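notes to self, project folder thing:

trying the whole complex as one job this time. last attempt i did each chain seperately and stitching them together was a nightmare. two parts in total, labels are on each line so i dont mix them up again. if this works i'll redo the older ones the same way
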Amino acid sequence: MLDIRLLRESPELVKQRIATRDAALAPLVDQILAIDSARRAAETERQQLQSDRNRLSKEIGIGRKNGEDTSAKETEVRGIGTRIDEIGQEADAADTQQRDLLLALPNLPHDACPIGSTAEENPEVRRWGTAPAYDFEPKDHIALGQTHGMLDFEAGAKITGSAFVVYRGPGARLERALINFLLDLHTTQHGYTEISPPLLVKPECLVGTTQLPKFGDQVYHCPEDDLYLIPTAEVPVTNLHREEILKNEQLPIHYAAYTPCFRREAGSAGLGTRGLIRMHQFDKVELVHITTPETSMDALETLTGHAEKVLQLLGLHYRVIELCTGDIGFGSAKTYDIEVWAPGQKAYLEVSSCSTFGDYQARRMNLRFKDADGKNRFAHTLNGSGTALARLFVALVETHQQADGTILIPEALRRHYGADRIG
RNA sequence: GGAGAGAUGGCUGAGUGGUCGAAAGCACAUCUUUGCUAAAGAUGCGUAGGAGUAAUCCUACCGAGGGUUCGAAUCCCUCUCUCUCCGCCA
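result (full assembly):
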């Protein structure tokens, strides 16, 4: 969330910046400031009353020791106590209200984030490689999956529901090979520490990484235990250090985690899409950085590069786009999306979204570090997919399919897959 | 799931109703002195919030939330977590 002091000191700046996401958000700022001043007035009064009570109570204690009659003072303090309860309720209510509103206010886009209102205005930053040409009509991954017995959508629907898939045989093996390839790449070449977290988390973790309270309908919930299935490893991994004060020398932290991801995709337009493009459950290797404020923008470039390396090694054509202010995620200050070319789809598929959140998530989860001067400051958090698996699978089999129907396994992946082709 | 023990500041650990935000030790920071692979001494050293131009002052926090009381780290209730033992189990 945003720093209330920033709203107090520079309300116009905050309104301007937040309006680059959505003009309708600006009035929220004034609403929060009104509650903030009411809250502080009530808080000040409460503290004054508490101070009075403390003083009188001490006098009563001393008086009783000296055998004085303290009943008049006791009556007075009783009255103060009632007043404290009343004003305290006001103060607490305003505090809760203020917090709720702050949690509903998205992050300010970074100055470096291009201004725009829709995805059409996202500038393309760079391309790597070119879309491959074929002297035959390339099949899509659904057909390839059928040919090689790799993907069983009917079985997924049967045992769970639509938008769930069963990988089998070479498909399951390829998925596993990709997971190992990604983790090995990031841990041995890019210096990440591998994490294998729980897949169920407490609600406060989702508040920390901004899925709650606003986007609760997108995550699977187990009400009996009040636990949520993670929509991304970002949630458990970033929250590893919630409510902590890290030592300066611990930063930067680099974590890589493979997990399945569970998303309800409520109201999602693309859910009807055939194939692996949008599933309720998919695998992903996630990269998380925790940095100092001074280094987070550089870290975003590094992180994006690490995700790009995956596609380069697998020989997949891709482009990097930069999300504009109207299209970045709720907590993001700046985001790059990496889109891989899928010949069977004749489309670019988003396989990675790399964002810096500035201190926005850190404030929500109270994640701080002690700087060189011994001051506690909020850390900066970043994350990016490195990469999402289902769509990587799609791009891989569609790109490397051969005229004879076999699928060539890229050189870099052969060690993990254990063969040089499927079929 | 059952039984028991526990949860206090960065760590260890006192504190069973009043002047306790909390002794002491360790760690850490600065300074002083003696000197040399260190020692001794002095001072400082939690977090959050509020008032004030500021110096500074005030409030809250002893796992969390309620309650009793003029007053709670301390008494009562509920919950969470940790440890030990038993049961069950991949």
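what i see at first glance: The first strand of chain A starts at residue 124 and ends at 128.
need to look closer tmrw
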